[in-house]
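Input (structure):
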């Protein structure tokens, strides 16, 4: 009995330790399971057919060294091909020598490894070459080679609209269109029978597969060219002003199609990236909200844009709080139009208090009609909820109404603000913004999205006409005057809002600069909004100086792209550059250039050495005398660097120049006296 017991125990130990791996593999091989096969994810296209997001196949290559065809005749086929196969693998991947590959393959063959990993993540071109290699080309049964197909999501344009298009990620939630349309893009999952071998490795069982159904394709409203213009213009200003984050949206007026949506946020390393979709994140809009206040007053026929309001020199006390106009002035009696053009907080607050203090809901109902209390309805997940207070709100106070009138104590997204401006441009019809035009399968159209009207008419024709006059006046006479173009009219509104910084409140002096509008004003094709949050204590933060130039650059380049469709102001106009039409230089040289270009002009310079070229109100070219004399800093804007250096060095002024082209800004204002060892910085466009 003792001997028998010892024999049984010894045999058990031998089986467990010496033959354990063999019997476990036998056990594992009896286990089969059906696993899912992921479908190829659909592609996202721009409106012109460019790929914005697509799936690229990658391959993991395994070898079944236990394959019968590979091991027949004591592995003759393997031995005959190993040298040439090792040479080919070394040449293709360049990561191991021929001898190293040979040793690797021989080790796998000796161990009879059933799922030996040879290479991970090779691309399709490498896979095509691999299939023609010795042994591999004999097929799976004879070679033992197994290809496992994976796919990676690729955005060919990189940063371009990255957050809006979104990311399809394995271990994190998708964002953007990839998330909104995930169920369509991912298609239908297939099935595959696999057999588990030693180590829990799953080997496919041939002939037991249900093919997956590939995902649908999306055709978006985005235009790659317009997106690139918006992205570059925004990036330029963000870097220049060291801003925290910003967004620029371009919408087609008649349809509500989003043609571009750029979002940039500053990373810790100082670089900018599309980290969040700021276009759909609600914040206090500031002065761009004044358009809603004007609409309410005009639509209720409380006043006309020709009526007067007292701006109280830009300071007005309401209860225990004081309203200040952001740009200091000494204006008192002005028209409502002028108050709007000046972006007067006092003017808007007075209108709200005079006409709606007794019935705030009359004013708030206008905001609700404009859908400012709702989301935009755009096909993106993650839009934050807007906030429009009412007298029943817990945070309502005696000063809520006047502060709402100029864009505080309300929260709306830049996209919602743009919808309002787009509606004014679109004869009062508010369109729902959207990003997907078509859903396709194998190139065939399945679903086509049509423009959708949200509000048939936001106001009467009389009100809309007055609003358009005010918006054009902002650019002609008001806070957006620097954005004028000689080629087409712009209508819009600047905005500058003080932004709270968490628990620190408003003490950090962080300003949000914005500009919302449309162009050409007389026949609007595009509306656009730019919103930029500046760094604390930024030296330049007004909407017309930060967001305005981005808007102007986008408008200029779109106007150039659409020159055949958009009428120009006049047939004969001098060429323009990236700033406004304003040149200065030596009088004789300027006359020579105008003569060579055959541009007619009116000359009022006489014998003066320096001249500037401008346009009068009738868009005729005029040559003006540019006064440069004595020890007074002149206005150097419009000059080339050579002329500016000549003038300043004659005055013994040290010059630091940044950029190329014409002078667009100077660190010391014109009219300042020249002092000893004075240094001036010139910014060129």
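Output (sequence):
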């Amino acid at each position: 009995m003792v001997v028998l017991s010892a024999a049984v125990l010894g045999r058990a130990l031998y089986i467990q330790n010496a033959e354990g791996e063999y019997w476990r593999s036998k056990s594992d091989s009896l286990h089969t399971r059906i696993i899912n096969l992921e479908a190829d994810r659909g592609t996202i296209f721009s409106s012109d057919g460019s790929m914005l997001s697509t799936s690229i196949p990658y391959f993991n290559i395994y070898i079944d060294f236990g394959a019968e065809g590979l091991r027949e005749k004591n592995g003759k086929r393997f031995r005959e091909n190993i040298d040439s196969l090792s040479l080919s693998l070394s040449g293709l991947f360049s990561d191991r020598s021929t001898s190293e590959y040979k040793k690797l393959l021989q080790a796998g063959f000796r161990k009879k490894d059933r799922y030996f990993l040879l290479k991970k993540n090779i691309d399709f071109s490498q896979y095509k070459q691999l299939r023609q290699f010795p042994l591999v080309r004999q097929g799976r049964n004879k070679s033992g080679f197994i290809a496992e197909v994976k796919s990676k999501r690729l955005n060919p344009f990189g940063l371009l609209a990255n957050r809006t298009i979104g990311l399809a990620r394995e271990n994190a939630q998708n964002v953007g269109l990839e998330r909104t349309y995930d169920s369509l893009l991912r298609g239908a999952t297939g099935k595959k029978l696999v057999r588990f071998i030693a180590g829990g490795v799953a080997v496919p069982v041939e002939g037991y597969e249900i093919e997956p159904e590939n995902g649908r394709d999306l055709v978006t409203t985005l235009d790659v060219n317009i997106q690139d213009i918006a992205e570059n213009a925004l990036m330029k200003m963000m870097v220049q002003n060291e801003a925290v984050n910003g967004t620029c949206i371009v919408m087609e007026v008649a349809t509500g199609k989003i043609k571009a949506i750029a979002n940039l946020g500053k990373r810790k390393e100082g670089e900018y990236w599309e980290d969040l979709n700021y276009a759909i994140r609600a914040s206090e809009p500031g002065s761009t909200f004044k358009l809603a206040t004007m609409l309410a007053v005009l639509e209720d026929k409380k006043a006309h844009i020709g009526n007067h309001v007292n701006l109280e020199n830009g300071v007005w006390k309401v209860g225990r709080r004081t309203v200040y106009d952001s740009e200091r002035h000494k204006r008192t009696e002005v028209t409502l139009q002028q108050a709007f053009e000046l972006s007067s907080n006092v003017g808007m607050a007075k209108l709200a208090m005079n006409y709606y203090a007794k019935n705030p809901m009359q004013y708030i109902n206008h905001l609700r009609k404009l859908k400012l209390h709702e989301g935009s309805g755009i096909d993106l997940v993650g839009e934050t909820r807007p906030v429009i207070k009412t007298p029943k709100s817990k945070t309502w106070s005696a000063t809520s109404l006047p502060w709402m009138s100029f864009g505080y104590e309300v929260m709306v997204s830049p996209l919602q603000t743009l919808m309002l401006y787009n509606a004014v441009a679109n004869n009062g019809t508010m369109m729902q913004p959207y990003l997907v035009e078509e859903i396709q399968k194998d190139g065939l159209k399945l679903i086509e999205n049509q423009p959708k009207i949200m509000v048939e008419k936001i106001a009467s024709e009389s009100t809309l006409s007055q609003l358009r006059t005010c918006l054009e006046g902002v650019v002609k006479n008001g806070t957006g005057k620097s954005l004028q173009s000689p080629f087409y009219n712009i209508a819009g509104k600047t905005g500058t809002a003080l932004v709270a910084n968490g628990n620190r409140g408003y003490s950090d002096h962080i300003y949000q600069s914005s500009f919302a509008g449309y162009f050409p004003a007389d026949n609007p094709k595009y509306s656009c909004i730019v919103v930029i949050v500046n760094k604390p204590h930024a030296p330049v933060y007004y909407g017309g100086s930060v967001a305005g130039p981005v808007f102007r650059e986008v408008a200029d380049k779109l106007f150039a792209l659409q020159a055949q469709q958009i009428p120009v102001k006049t047939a004969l106009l001098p060429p323009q550059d990236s700033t406004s039409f304003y040149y200065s230089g030596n009088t004789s040289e300027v006359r020579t250039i105008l003569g060579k270009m055959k541009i007619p002009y009116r000359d009022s310079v006489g014998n003066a050495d320096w001249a500037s070229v401008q346009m009068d109100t009738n868009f005729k070219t005029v040559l003006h005398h540019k006064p440069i004399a004595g020890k007074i800093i002149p206005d150097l804007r419009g000059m080339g660097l050579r002329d500016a250096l000549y003038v300043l060095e004659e005055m013994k002024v040290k010059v630091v120049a940044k950029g190329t082209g014409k002078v667009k800004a100077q660190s010391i204002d014109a009219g300042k006296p020249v002092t000893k060892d004075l240094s001036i910085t010139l910014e060129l466009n």
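Notes: Residues 34 and 137 are 29 Å apart (CA to CA). The longest strand covers residues 51-63.
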